[in-house]
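Give me the fold.
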Amino acid sequence: KYIVKSELLKNRHVSYQYNLSQSIPFGDQRSANSSGSGFFYKISKDQNYGIIITAAHNVIGPGRKIEDFYFIHDIAKVNAGDYQNDQGISIKEYQIFEPISGFNRYYLSELGSDFAVIMVKRKAKRVKGKKQKTAKMVEAVEIREELEILNVLENKEDEHTKDETPNGTQIYSIGHGLGLPLKFSIDGEIIKLREGFPYFEARLSLLGGNSGSPIFDADTHECIGMYIRGVKKFELNKDTNELDIKKEQTTKERGDLFEGHECQKWKNIKIACEDLCDSSNRWLELYKLIKS
């Protein structure tokens, strides 16, 4: 087993000046010291290799290298007892995915793009209920041709692949805000579509650590974007001098600005995923040529 470092949410320090409220929602649940959330775009038939989408700022920046990161899969499905460990959250080795060197894409732009597309492999393969150590890095090239099964998050060619996703569209999101076990944010809404920009603004109850969470259309349940950044999530309770989660994410208008959350449009992400797949296929052809 592995231990993901964590502590009770109510004991976490998110500010140098103030403590979190002891009555904060989910305060008695363990909060992992994680970078953010993410989800699979594609996964191989044996589920040992895949492509993960997350926010670029989760994995790159000052002092951050993609080689230093691991992705924990199905952490929401661990046993309740695994969350009671005093040192952290217990996970199995096969839940850990690591990036494949050279097969990733990062998109950070002045227009507002903030996403990463990363090819990963399972740290320990699962074979008929057992685990088996992964092959050498170069052998992972051959497995990429198995990346054919699309995750349910892959959406169809519809109006959401264009820039005309309408204001007022009802949405929801799933992720690991503040490093907590899987949480749903429901009853959300697109409040401002920025035409010509790679993101839209939405009203959702999301927190730090939700960056990289998928955004779904509440009617079709198709992925239409990914959460990348948002407004201040806490407010000071002057009676207790502690920080509480904002009870309502408002839509106050300040000029052309909204107090909402910004979400990367799916169209931009999908193009990047297809580019990575094309690049992988070219490497696969070259590898086979060299091998022959």
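The longest strand covers residues 96-108.
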